Amino acid sequence: MTSAWPPLDLHAHLSPDIDAAELLSLRAVIFAPTRSLSEASVVLKRDDPLTCWGVGAHPKIVSALEGFSVTTFDRLLDRTAYVSEIGLDGSTRARLDIQRAVLRAILGLLRAKPRITSLHSYGATDELIDELERTPIRGAVLHWWRGDAQATARAVDLGAYFSINASSLKDDELMARLPLDRVLPETDHPYGDRDQANPRPGRTETVEHALAIRNALSHEEVRQQLWRNLAALLADTKCQDLLPTRLAAMVIAANERSS
User: Fold this and answer.
1) Three-state SS string across the chain, please?
2) What pLDDT does residue 258 have?
3) What is the pTM of this model?
4) CATH code matching the domain that covers 8-258, chosen among 3.20.20.140, 1.25.40.10, 3.40.50.2300, 2.60.40.420
5) In the chain, domain spans
6) pLDDT in tens, 13-53
């Protein structure tokens, strides 16, 4: 499939020292999470034209939670349009108290400085929505969402978006509940695409194909819609100026085409 727009990948884990030429060879726009503030401090010094590096504190990583600093996070937040990976992880319930404390601190900062915010909620979908209802933010994107009908409806009411990967497509009931104008593609490489042939960051065509069939649209129409969704998310958060310059120009073009 060819398109005037490159594929989008709203959540793909990359090595902090990945070569810049290798990133460009992926021919995709990638939003790359970090798991800790120390990792974010390194990657936010990079200048990759089509990759937006994030700042995060992964809820499943003890050292990231224990090393969290509100002051450091706030400083790093000024250097990126993307927050990830943050959230709650129910598979490690012994640490839910510290997870919740870190998440609440971050959500408090995001109230004043909205960003595209990719939220982890494995095993804790209801608890995460509880936190977003307690501290609503603009720009919430529920990464690899697994919530039931009630939790999904609550998320939609909050204005949240949903990033879906190839593994998400296995849940037909979930896919039927997600509004197309709230969906964004992801790989969650190397986790969410592990069952795909030749998995790599930015390879979201499988998601596009499924959305095209489900919505009776062409691949190009789906990709344009996904870019419009990204443009709407950035318009809502007003953090477009923090994107890499080339990526920001592409978002402006996508927004103008949809107006």
Assistant:
1) CCCCCCCEECCCCCCCCCCHHHHHHCCCEEEECCCCHHHHHHHCCCCCCCEEECECCCCCCHHHHHCCCHHHHHHHHCCCCEEEEEECCHHHHHHHHHHHHHHHHHHHHHHHCCCEEEEECCCCHHHHHHHHHHCCCCCEEEECCCCCHHHHHHHHHCCCEEEECCCHHHCHHHHHHCCHHHEEECCCCCCCCCCCCCCCCCCCHHHHHHHHHHHCCCHHHHHHHHHHHHHHHHHHHCCHHHCCHHHHHHHHHHHHHHC
2) 63
3) 0.95
4) 3.20.20.140
5) 8-258
6) 999 999 999 999 999 999 999 999 999 999 999 999 999 99
